[in-house]
Amino acid sequence: MSVKLYYDDRYMKTFTATVQSCREDKKGWAVVLDRTAFYPEGGGQPHDTGRLYFGEETAQVTDVREKGEQIVHYCDRPIPAGTRVNGEIDWERRFDFMQQHTGEHMFSGVVHSMFGYNNVGFHMNENDVVVDFDGPLIKDDIKAVMDECNRCVWENQPVIAGFPDNVKDMEYRSKKELSGPIRIVTAGQADVCACCGTHTATTARAGPIAALSFAAYKGGTRINILCGKRAVEYLKNRNDDCYEISHILSSPVEKITDSLRSRLKETEMLKAQLARANRQLMEMLVRQAAAENGLCVVKKDGLDAASARQLATLLAEKSRTAVAFSGEENGKICIISTEYDTNALGRHISGALGGKGGGKPGMYQGFVTRRTDEERIKALVRSFNG
Ligand SMILES: [Zn+2]
């Protein structure tokens, strides 16, 4: 059995222990110690990482799992049974998870007391903390939960973990029916919950608690939260973004939303104007184009695929075979015809000028790699015997 030092002192960063067993398996060298401060994966909290020092050697601990009564440390080298080791935990990683985990308790506890919803899913890793609730929440609900969580943070309330005797009479949150000794974590006034994880000693040490985004999920709500240092880092980065946007828009940071809205409105107006001008230009090109023996070929610089199709469609109203193309290197081309197999005609033209294309019967769309002009396209259509 491994003694769980992380339950005696959640802030323990180093410790000494004796190796009880060591065997190789597919995840590395599985080392069991008589006592450990390494937290194994559990209760939604990822495992610790760190090092075991012995003699002149250092074993990296890359994974930690609880198996029955033993805590297994997966190491990059063997350590003989009986060896005394000094353990050291990657504290920054562990403390970050303690802040996220404590904040998650508080958030879930406050949602439960304010709205009666249960936390039905919790996922935490180095980047995200995701919590699922079994009821709908709107933005103002989530803001109210954040306010109450942070009030508990500012009041620096104690976070107490232990195995109380009167657990049967207690009201606490739990995702499943529990048996055996039940570990209860009380996070200030915010939460009482059964949990096997590690938490900060007070609500204040969890740091600020922020909900970033939320979405409807399986009839309830999925919320991304950030706590402690992560919340501060996030705030710094988003603040940088806001000032960058303010610089780009030449607008005071408090007004970037209004400024962006008016820019987008302006862009929409310009797009509409451009579309009108393009349509007028197309109509002019179509009016000027003359059909020769049912063939109408028009070149326009800078045609994109949609405009080529639009122009060819208009030309097809006054001809049996219409070709619209841009004529530049890798320029777009569209062929509409009631007298030819358009795919075969397209292949004939791309055979001569390079390029590729395809389409439905009656319409070919593609591009040609070489520069070309109207006379060359007309000659290619005439030479086609499809
Ligand atoms: Zn917990």
Structural write-up:
This protein is of the alpha+beta class and 386 residues long. 34% of the residues lie in helices and 30% in strands. The protein contains 8 helices and 20 strands. The chain has helices at residues 5-8, 91-115, 139-154, 228-249, 256-288, 305-315, 342-353, 374-382; strands spanning 3-4, 14-25, 28-33, 35-36, 50-54, 57-67, 70-75, 84-89, 119-124, 129-133, 159-162, 184-187, 191-194, 209-217, 220-227, 295-299, 321-325, 331-337, 356-358, 363-368. A 6-stranded antiparallel beta barrel has the order 2-3-7-6-5-8. A 5-stranded mixed β-sheet has the order 16-17-18-20-19. Strands 9-10-15-14 form a 4-stranded antiparallel β-sheet. The longest helix has 33 residues, at 256-288. The N and C termini lie far apart (85 Å). 35% of the residues are buried. The model has no long low-confidence stretch (mean pLDDT 95). Zinc ion is lined by residues 43, 101, 105, 185, 195, 197, 199.
